[in-house]
Fold:
Amino acid sequence: EPEVTQTPSHQVTQMGQEVILRCVPISNHLYFYWYRQILGQKVEFLVSFYNNEISEKSEIFDDQFSVERPDGSNFTLKIRSTKLEDSAMYFCASIGLVVNSPLHFGNGTRLTVT
Amino acid sequence: GENVEQHPSTLSVQEGDSAVIKCTYSDSASNYFPWYKQELGKRPQLIIDIRSNVGEKKDQRIAVTLNKTAKHFSLHITETQPEDSAVYFCAASWSYQLTFGKGTKLSVIP
Structure:
């Protein structure tokens, strides 16, 4: 069964540094997402991406965040200047064309900001 | 935007007993309601979902009910087993964006 893949599985960075989290969505999917989960808390929506542009974003997704689909397969989340409170698990997800299809999550990247 | 409330936040049951988790949502336009199971350190995995044209759906020991008038939906797990221990999240969606509840930590005591 095809899967969403994310790299790296764990990223440690110093406060103020830029990080790029990488995702390869399922190949025939068209909607891509980033979600964040702070340890012990709920899964929070960050941003959705369709047709090479952001379709929706949450209040969490401020100017420090950006997303990109640099080629036909990768989908990246960049945090420009990391803060301690950015420490969380970041999940990439994708959906096919059908509305209200199940969301397929990647295994996540655990970001630790020190 | 959509707001999803989930209760209880923690639930302990004896092995073999049933567990019920309840969620309410605010946006009457929501028409898709999945449930995810998340084991420690792992990604959320879909276990069952229901669409608004259906009131109840069952898959072996798991069932979900939906009351659109009251805007609430519930997850029922019967004959619980230790491997059911995990955090369960409900979610609601009307388009391509899911809003999650805060999760219920289910502990099944052998």
